[in-house]
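Mods, move this if it's the wrong board.
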Amino acid sequence: MFKSGVGFLALFGLGWWLLATSAFDGLARLVEVVVGCAVTLGLMLAARRFLPSSTAGESFPADRRRRFNQINGIQWLLIVVIAVVCARAALPVLIPPLVAMVVGLHFLPLAAVFKQPRLRVPAALLIAAGASGMAVWLTNGPDKTVRLVVGLISALCLWGTGIWTVTGAASAAEHGVRE
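Not the wrong board. Structure tokens:
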């Protein structure tokens, strides 16, 4: 289900989508939550259907696995620091934009680890999502608008990357090319 990282992209995309929907109330939010769950499920099913089985079973070299773990460990450490510092500074509104920037930055070394230069695209988009949220905050926009902007851009970025991965693999399989 998590072939080529698509499951992670789908689920983290849903998390960002739920952040974006926190800007809405009532029925509108419920509809948006259902839409997000449907997109996530559809993407995960598409990955299961179209990505080759060998992707999930291939071994990951120890040095690359270690580097992957280091990158993710640093990312999560920074996220915790951001949450603590922003909470203590009474600025929880800054958590989503700063986290989006950290997540975006973490894709840059992952592009090298996975030998996937296209991961620079979600890196740039997530950094832009964070910067956009910071711009809304700096111009005295409401907290819910910061959450909407950061969450929406981040969700669409991650889901788009997942779709890009699935369609690329499906196209390669259709043409008899192994990615």
